[in-house]
Write a structure and sequence with these properties.
With 172 residues, the protein is of the alpha+beta class. The protein is built from six helices and five strands, in the order H-H-H-E-E-E-H-E-E-H-H. Strand 1 (46-49) and strand 2 form a beta hairpin.
Length: 172
């Protein structure tokens, strides 16, 4: 089946307008900035942090083990990170993937970032990466047809499973 394209050039005026820009502005306090100051604990959902980066549970997970990796500084994109922050962020993402692999023995892993509101970021003004273990056959009729996700564990269980794996220092 060939990909069909629908051109809507009339939308160009809107997407480049001040009105569209207003929809992506920062409104009030940032939940991620608040979390970045929390100590790792099951109550906060923060699993690990260093001076530049932290890892937390996704409060609205797509599946078991869904974690977020974030810079502690409030920035909206990768290009805004200093070199030191970028290295810390990248190393924390790798550390998170290793912890999820150890804790869940998943068949695969989704890692991704939605940069900006137009790309689907729920909180577009604070950069965050998603890491989510996946298993063969984990998309079933509930997700595909019922548009409902079934999570077989609580956020507290996820925190407990992953915390010890994130606490272990990983070489390079």
């Amino acid at each position: 089946m060939a990909l069909e394209r629908l051109y809507a050039a009339w939308r160009e005026a809107y997407v480049s307008s001040p009105e569209a820009q207003r929809h992506s502005r920062d409104e009030g306090s940032c939940v991620f900035c608040s979390l970045s100051e929390e100590e790792p604990s099951i109550e906060s959902g923060v699993l690990w942090r260093d001076p530049l980066t932290f890892v937390t549970l996704n409060a609205f997970p797509y599946g078991s083990g869904h974690l977020l990796v974030l810079p502690r500084r409030h920035v909206g994109g990768v290009s805004e990170l200093s070199d030191e922050e970028y290295v810390s962020f990248s190393m924390a993402l790798r550390r998170t993937v290793r912890a999820l692999e150890s804790a869940y023995s998943a068949d695969g892993m989704n890692i991704g970032m939605n940069l900006g509101q137009a790309a689907g970021a729920g909180i577009p003004k604070h950069l965050h990466a998603h890491a989510l273990p996946r298993w063969s056959g984990d998309t079933n009729f509930m997700t595909a047809i019922g548009e409902t996700r079934v999570l077989p564990e609580s956020l507290e269980t996820t925190w407990t499973k992953v915390f010890s794996h994130l606490s272990v220092p990983h070489a390079g």
